[in-house]
Design a protein that fits this description.
Distance between the termini: 15 Å
Number of domains: 3
Helix content: 40-55%
Shape: globular
Radius of gyration: 22 Å
Strand order of the largest sheet: 1-2-3
Strand content: 5-15%
Length: 327
């Protein structure tokens, strides 16, 4: 049985989208089928495009909005006027209607949630008081974190998910942990580190139609690199996440080697089991590769070949043409 890929037009809610359909095919009988992983991969490709087209939040975002208010899924459904289990289903992957999606996005702003809470006569007074106290705290915290949000918007160009982020909201904390992971495990030079990060995010997309970090990658002569990587690495060093050691070489060049900062430790709990597996597979595959070798490998991918002349950002759909990192 071999995995076959072919472009197909698929429909979701009367909308048609192009999907690189993956399926197993028997060479002898011609039989075709999908296992659970391929079903999810094909479905995610389809639904991701629909979500982006209509600005419908992804499950992680929907869950994060609820959790920051410390309310249950049933209570959030009640506040928004949904069916009792709707919010939980949206967190598990069911796609909200466009009208429900707009409501969910609206209450990401604590001030908007407060309006809905205060006009909802079905909510108990004690619950309202407690929730309003949490809302006031969040409003104050937002003021304090304004610079961080602006800085992240600068680093990532946009904080919206799409085909250039692997359909994930860019996550600086998660990307920082990826840098720390490879710094701990391999102590790489900067050029190699950039490729390791690229392969981890794109290998995850290859398997699931989602990246790990939501980072955008640009094709430059030395291979794919995270956008604004120098600014990000400087930020991580200034915040005692990593240490960068400089070495002068006989040819006049300077190398930058990455190590974890004293007291800084990679947090496994920030990643899913599958994400951790991908990180380890990438580290093991390229552990002994020299910087020159990993550059040459990255130059074989369509994502780099078709984008490096204009130094364009690489669409994650090129992940399906990636060299196989995973067995």
């Amino acid at each position: 049985m071999n995995i076959v890929k072919e472009w197909r037009t698929m429909s979701f809610r009367k909308e048609e989208f192009r999907v690189l359909f993956h399926f197993y095919k028997c060479d002898d009988t011609g039989e075709q089928f999908e296992d659970e992983d391929l079903v999810n991969l094909n479905y995610n490709q389809l639904v991701n495009q629909y979500r982006v087209k209509y600005s419908i939040p992804f499950p992680e975002k929907i869950k994060a909005i609820r959790e920051k208010y410390h309310v249950s899924g049933n209570k959030m459904s009640e506040i928004l006027g949904f069916g009792i289990n709707n919010y939980r289903q949206y967190e598990k992957g069911e796609v909200p209607s466009q009208s429900n999606a707009r409501l969910i996005q609206l209450v990401e702003d604590p001030r908007e949630l407060r309006k809905l809470v205060n006009i909802n006569g079905a909510l108990g007074s004690s619950f309202k008081e407690k929730l309003n106290r949490n809302i006031e705290k969040l409003i104050e915290e937002q003021k304090k974190e304004k610079f961080k949000r602006q800085f992240e918007a600068y680093l990532f160009d946009s904080l919206l998910p799409g085909s250039f982020t692997g359909y994930k909201i860019p996550d600086l904390d998660k990307f920082s942990e990826m840098v720390l992971f490879f710094s701990e495990k391999l102590k790489p030079w900067k050029t190699k580190l950039n490729k390791l990060l690229f392969y981890a995010d794109f290998a995850m997309f290859q398997q699931t139609a989602f990246s790990i970090s939501g980072m955008k990658y640009q094709a430059i002569p030395m291979g794919p690199v995270p956008v604004k990587f120098n600014s990000i690495f400087e930020f991580l060093e200034n915040n005692n996440k990593i240490e960068i050691f400089y070495q002068n070489f006989p040819d006049g060049g300077t190398g930058e080697q990455f190590l974890p900062a004293p007291g800084s430790k990679f947090r496994e709990e920030a990643f899913s089991e599958r994400e951790l597996k991908i990180l380890n597979l990438v580290a093991n595959k390229f552990e002994k590769a020299t910087t020159k070798e990993i550059i040459e490998t990255s130059h074989q991918g369509k994502g780099w070949i078709e984008n490096h002349e204009k130094r364009s950002v690489i669409d994650y759909s090129y992940g399906f043409d990636l060299i196989s990192v995973c067995p």
